[in-house]
Amino acid sequence: MSTDRLKKLQQFLAQTPNEPFLKYAIALEYLKLEEDQQALAQFEKITQEHPLYVGTYYHLGKLYEKLQLEEQALPCYKRGMDVARQLEDHHAFSELQGAWNMLNDELMDD
Questions:
Q1: What is the pLDDT of residues 9-42, one digit of tens each?
Q2: Which whole-number Å values give the CA distances from 4 to 30, 42, 55, 63, 79, in the listed order?
């Protein structure tokens, strides 16, 4: 996959460095490029700098699962559910709760 889109997003971010959507889009591009550690660093930074950017929590939790960091995924989903509840974002809450339930059930079966 080409890195052209990633470079473009980084240029946009240089112009508007506090835009959480661009940071999120960059993290997703790193995922597409299978650069998991770069994506992880980006997602974690977003949760610190923009804790109300609710979409981050689902993707960060899934990345933790992919990296076999389940002990970090569960609280990530939980934080995301708290943010979604605070923002009254029922769709995000439902997705995060579903991911939390699925992982929790898998861990209970082990």
A1: 999 999 999 999 999 999 999 999 999 999 999 9
A2: 12, 18, 24, 23, 33
Mean model confidence pLDDT for the chain: 95
**Count of residues in the chain:** 110
pTM: 0.92
Q: How many CB atoms lie within 10 A of CB 95?
A: 19
CATH number at residue 50: 1.25.40.10
- Say how many C-beta atoms besides its own lie within 10 A of residue 29's C-beta: 21
Highest averaged pLDDT of the listed ranges 1-5, 6-10, 96-100: 96-100
Helix boundaries (H) for the chain: 4-15, 20-32, 36-49, 55-66, 70-87, 90-109
Range of the domain at 8: 4-109
Domains: count for the chain: 1
